[in-house]
Write a structure and sequence with these properties.
CATH topology of the largest domain: Rossmann fold
Radius of gyration: 21 Å
Strand content: 15-25%
Number of strands: 14
CATH architecture of the largest domain: 3-Layer(aba) Sandwich
Order of helices and strands: EHEEEHEHEHHEHEHEHEHEHEHEEHHH
CATH class of the largest domain: Alpha Beta
Structural class: alpha/beta
CATH superfamily of the largest domain: Glycogen Phosphorylase B
Oligomer: single chain
Helix content: 40-55%
Number of helices: 14
Distance between the termini: 12 Å
Strand order of the largest sheet: 3-4-2-1-5-6-7-8
Low-confidence stretches: none
Length: 386
């Protein structure tokens, strides 16, 4: 066993650590912070491909550096991007000499990690092949889905250890060898645990996530209109960056059509501190996605003691336990979503009870130190078996 580990992590990663975009950035930032505190880790170098920002190397601490590369892509295709970026990653790896490379995700970052020929761990942050199949509406879409399946298989074949963040992705990725799989959920930053226990404002609902069709904010808005009819003082806050502007326009148009604009507030892309504040203010988190793996925002809400009402997709059922930590509803069932939200808002004592149970679950599963310990064990396994 190597006493002190040098870890090359290839991941999407924020430039402003107070503001993250999506669950992968949040999970990677939490993991890097936890690894930096771990006695078995000598240094972590995070390699980030950012076509929009300046190329730079930032020293975060005596154990963490982040290298942002700003490549000029010849194409927007993710597979070709990976092939163009692999030489730069090899150059970085040659200088850093890592013991293990950790790819965050099965897409571009996972493919680049697989190209390095080093002991490799990959974390499954989303099933891009499943998403591609869901989005396939014509022959071209089905062709893309086939490419996604092959790409995912190639990454998994190269990985010595595959980290499943949920039982859902473990069931879906049947091609992973059983001895190569470990289950480690994403970590939740300590700030969310530290803020637990505060009383929310009554009749308040929060959505937090990227604004895109897969999150089905449109369906949530329709359900909230029914909530508002039953509880006229209810309010909905919508927080998160806009990934699909056209979809935001549809959501805004629907809010106007339903004439519920005064009861809906868009917070935009918020800082971590503002997200903590939003979770503190709101009585319940609502997530009505069409597909998820193990949503980071649900783990964060549970850590803060907030009940969750969410569509029963992917790994949501591993966190949202009916009548214990919240309620699950069928995907696209707007009436059921509205009914459960009304139920939680109408009974603050039950909401507080579910919140306490959720906080206990989050502490046991998502605390940064526990996740770092399990991740270091995965590194030891892949290095020992390489």
């Amino acid at each position: 066993m190597i006493d002190k580990l040098r870890v090359l992590m290839i991941s999407s990663f924020p430039r402003d650590f107070s503001k993250v975009v999506g669950g992968v950035q949040s999970a990677a930032l939490s993991l890097v912070n936890a690894l930096a505190e771990h006695e078995r880790v000598e240094e972590v170098l995070v390699l980030v491909y950012d076509p929009d920002g300046q190329a730079e190397t930032r020293t975060i601490s005596d154990k963490v550096r982040v290298e942002y590369l700003r490549p000029v892509f010849l194409t927007g295709d993710g597979l070709l991007q990976s092939r163009q970026l692999a030489p730069a990653a090899r150059k970085v790896a040659a200088g850093f000499r890592p013991h293990v490379v950790h790819g965050q995700g099965l897409g571009r970052e996972g493919r680049i990690a697989a190209a390095l020929g080093l002991p490799m761990v990959v974390t499954v942050h989303g099933l891009i092949n499943v998403e591609a199949r869901m989005a396939a509406r014509d022959a071209l879409g089905r062709l893309r889905a086939g490419f996604a399946d092959r790409s995912v298989r190639q990454v998994l074949d190269k990985a010595g250890i595959v980290i499943s963040i949920s039982d859902y992705d473990a069931r879906e990725l049947t091609m992973v060898r059983p001895e190569a799989r470990v289950s480690i959920p994403n970590a939740v930053p300590n700030a969310f645990f530290d803020a637990a226990g505060t009383a929310p404002q009554p009749d308040t609902v929060l959505f937090a996530g990227v604004m895109r069709e897969r999150k089905n904010v449109l369906g949530l808005v329709n359900a909230f209109a029914k909530v508002l009819a039953a509880r006229p003082g209810a309010r909905l806050q919508i927080a998160g960056p806009v990934i699909e502007p056209a979809y935001l326009a549809k959501v805004e148009a629907r809010i106007a059509e339903l004439e519920i604009g005064p009861s809906v507030e868009f917070l935009g892309h918020v800082s971590n501190d503002r997200l903590v504040q939003a979770l503190r203010e709101n009585a319940v988190l609502a997530l009505f996605s069409l597909e998820e793996t193990l949503p980071t925002i649900i783990a964060q809400a549970l850590a803060m003691g907030r009940p969750v009402v969410a569509s029963d997709v992917g790994g949501v059922g591993e966190m949202v336990i009916d009548s214990e930590t919240g309620w699950k509803v069928a995907s696209r069932d707007e009436d059921a979503l509205a009914a459960r939200l009304i139920q939680v808002l109408a009974d603050p004592e039950a909401g507080a009870r579910m919140g306490r149970a959720g906080a206990d679950l989050a502490q046991a599963r998502f605390a940064e130190r526990a996740v770092a310990d399990q991740t270091v064990m995965a590194y030891d396994r892949v290095i020992g078996g390489s």
